[in-house]
Amino acid sequence: MNVVLHQRGVYIKLGQIASTRPDIIPKTYLKKFAQLQDGVPAQPGEYARQMIEQAFGKPLEEIFSEFNPVAVGAATIGQAHEARLKGSNQSVVVKIQYPEVRRLFGLDFSTLKRFIKLAQPEHLPLFDEFEKGFQIEFDFRREARALDVIGRNIMPLYPNIVIPRPIPGMATEFVLVMEKLEGTKLVDALKVEQAKMAAAQGKTLEEFEQEMMTKYVSGELYREAKKKYTPSALIVNTYASLVRTINQIKNVCIFLYNHSIVPIMQRVPMDYIEQRVFINPHEIIDLLNDVHAHEILIDGIFNGDPHPGNIFLL
């Protein structure tokens, strides 16, 4: 891990890819590589200020009413900061490219290409396409245009999908400002659900994950799924609606109790029941598959980096 962080460049991207392959990467390495999705050590806040002022030609204070100098996320080619636009007070995310990242990637690809020519020349065409894809990422103006196009293509068709919009006139080659979406990383939300499932079986999350991974690698998980009844998306949604309705009724009763019996009888008020957010994996998987298929097969423009750190549950 220390070597990857020291070398940076393409090695971080390879680590990100490895973090999504539990079928071939040992668990110990998976946990380490997962940090590369959005937890790479960031550049200091002064670097962010310098890049922003250089990109827009004015002091940072004239652009943002608030700016967090501590990066909220950092990954392959850049880092992100939270801010508020001056005037509108809109919450935004500012994406800033790392210094010399393009040169580092060029050197990394050149080195790897020499090795591939020697060891596996048949993979050169695939590697060339891989390199071309990265070159596109270095111009944030292209990313802004892609966000705008994909948003207009997808959001009218899929109301449950939100794609952050770039702020007009605030995209340069090295700095991109986009609207901020509040949410939780999908992978984190799923881990919470896994922890609940593990607890119901009297296991720790680590034990549960290890058991599922062993079954997945051996094919047992697939065989069990074919034999056993698993609830459909409709059943999960129906159950979630029923639980929410019951909890709402209970909260109405608690409200009446707190505002009638409690003041008269000097009783201790009851706490309201917190509504549980249900995650329906069936719907999420189907929705993500539909959206990416539409982007690729219909629109011809798509998110080519849908790793778990890039998908949020809003």
TrEMBL record:
InterPro entries recorded: ABC1_dom (IPR004147), Kinase-like_dom_sf (IPR011009), Mito_struct-func_regulator (IPR051130)
Positions of the ABC1 atypical kinase-like domain: 35-199
Parts forming coiled coils: none
Similarity-based family: Belongs to the protein kinase superfamily. ADCK protein kinase family.
Protein name according to UniProt: ABC1 atypical kinase-like domain-containing protein
Organism from which the protein derives: Rotaria magnacalcarata
